[in-house]
Design a protein that fits this description.
The protein is of the alpha+beta class. About 55% of the residues lie in helices and about 15% in strands.
């Protein structure tokens, strides 16, 4: 991810032996695009079972589970 420009490595202020990863603007953009694809795919695959509102809620919950 770092080589592709989607994240940058930062020193961990609480533990010098490790690093923290932070999404770059390109990484945030790619994450947002992926979220849109997930929402669309959910709508296509389970749209008959859930309402549009429920699909958006499910997509938001999946995004929350996957990280910030």
């Amino acid at each position: 991810m770092q080589a592709a420009g989607y994240s940058s490595r930062l020193p961990n202020p609480d533990d010098r032996r490790s690093s923290l990863l932070e999404l770059t603007p390109a990484g945030r953009s790619a994450s947002a695009a992926a979220h849109s694809v997930v929402t669309e795919t959910l709508a296509q695959r389970i749209g008959e079972k859930l309402s549009a509102r429920e699909i958006l809620l499910l997509a938001s919950l999946l995004r929350a589970l996957s990280g910030p």
